[in-house]
Amino acid sequence: MNTPRIFRSLALGCAVVAAAPAVLAQDAPFPSRAVTLIVPFTPSSGSDTIARIVGPKLSARWGQPVVVENRPGASGNLGTSQVAKAAGDGYTLLMAINTHTITPAIYKSLPYDPLRDFAPVAELAQANFTLAVNPAVPVKDLRSLIAYGKANPGKLNYGTPGNGTPHHLAMELFKANQGVSFLHVPYKGISGALTDLMGGHVDLMFASVPSVRSYAQAGKVRLLAVTGEQRSSLLPDVPTFREQGDKGMDVIDAWYAVLAPAKTPPALVARLNKDFVEVMNSDEVKAELAPLGLQTRTGSPAQLDALIRADMKRWKALVDSTGITAD
């Protein structure tokens, strides 16, 4: 009997058995465990709202939990960086907004590359912006705000969810267009900014229609204008910027999308795109989003990639022309 050979055979067999679970785990169909949607902003933001609406639908489709995790900070850079460093296995995804295309223009350095470190999955929705003021501010419309701002330079301040957010660029563009001066007060998310707007600690701010509509209905804020060529169906009494003589604000909008880490296999990206697009275009989700001022707008990974690249060029041109900086 060749005892050493028998022991070698037994050892090899044990190694194969021990490795089997790892092989099975790698070959397990996606998803075989919980999927985390990272929202790089605070609760009540548009991306958070979408994540919490689609999360349960994706969970039902996948048969696995879908966890929404808020990681606000640094104008979305904290949560975005977390996803950039995650494994490309589909289990950690980023709920991105167009801040993703703005920060490269406004920050000298980022802890990630907005193109190289991510795989675009799908655009999900879009929303218009509105200019909101605290009711105590003595203005009733855009014209009176501009007049007040010019007569009282630097007296009013404005809140944003952080440097480099669409809200920040929107106000800086408005200031440049109208020749007014407002002091910037950046927050770590939309929740704190809105709370202080209603409390009178900041005077005005730009916000997406979904994030501020309920507060306007309750009389806690006053809305002066909305972006877009037509009035919002949810805010029919609020005139557009165009109606009030400012055609330069239509470049400001909000889009929402999902991104994966860069090394995610193309086949998995295609699977994720299919599932997100089908969920977003379901009658149930559309019905939940519509009252919030969010319109479903979906497409392929290639279309989202083109949108990101085009927006990066557009925002850089705006930042360069207005001299906007990260305060």
What does this structure look like?
The protein is of the alpha/beta class and 327 residues long. It has 2 domains: 35-127 and 253-322, D-Maltodextrin-Binding Protein, domain 2 (3-Layer(aba) Sandwich); 129-249, Periplasmic binding protein-like II (D-Maltodextrin-Binding Protein, domain 2, 3-Layer(aba) Sandwich), CATH 3.40.190. Helices cover 44% and strands 18% of the residues. It has helices at 3-27, 46-62, 77-84, 99-106, 142-151, 166-178, 190-199, 209-217, 266-280, 283-289, 301-322, and strands spanning 35-39, 66-70, 92-97, 118-127, 129-133, 157-160, 183-186, 204-208, 222-226, 254-261, 295-296. The chain has a 6-stranded mixed β-sheet, with helices on both faces. Strands 8-5-9 form a 3-stranded antiparallel β-sheet. A two-stranded parallel ribbon has the order 6-7. The longest helix is centred in the first third of the chain and has 25 residues, at 3-27. The protein is globular. Mean pLDDT is 89; it is low at 6-26. This is Tripartite tricarboxylate transporter substrate binding protein. InterPro entries: BUG (IPR005064), Bug_dom1 (IPR042100).
